[in-house]
Automatic annotation (TrEMBL):
A Gene Ontology BP annotation from the UniProt entry: regulation of nitrogen utilization
Signal sequence annotation: none
Pfam families: P-II
Protein name: Nitrogen regulatory protein P-II
Domain of life the protein comes from: Bacteria
Organism of this sequence: Bacteroides faecalis
GO molecular function: enzyme regulator activity
NCBIfam families, A to Z: PG0541_fam
Length: 97
């Protein structure tokens, strides 16, 4: 399993929830009004793809075989409206309780 953190503008909320449901993800934690800073190139800046434009994040657990379909769909969503700065971060889950 993998842990996936998705940061996004609120405009994506319904689409992301529907995507997680469609992929039968095990559940998620929803965080409103997150703040941060970053860009595609890694250089901090404001404007397109700047984290301050994002206002929400979802932390979810995803089966290994569903990570690629999730990221592919999120990437397509980001290409449609790049100014909204959708991002996803994935890491291994080593242990749970």
């Amino acid at each position: 399993m993998k842990s996936v953190l998705i940061t996004f503008d609120q405009a994506y909320f319904e689409r992301i929830i529907a995507l997680l449901d469609r992929l039968n993800c095990r559940g998620f934690s929803y965080l409103e009004k997150v703040q941060g800073r970053g860009s595609k190139t890694g250089d901090p800046h404001f404007g397109s793809h700047a984290w301050p434009s994002m206002c929400s994040a979802i932390l979810t657990v995803v089966d290994d075989n569903k990570v690629d379909p999730l990221l592919d769909t999120l990437h397509k969503m980001d290409l449609e409206t790049e100014q909204l700065g959708l991002r996803a971060f994935v890491w291994n889950i080593e242990r749970t309780i």
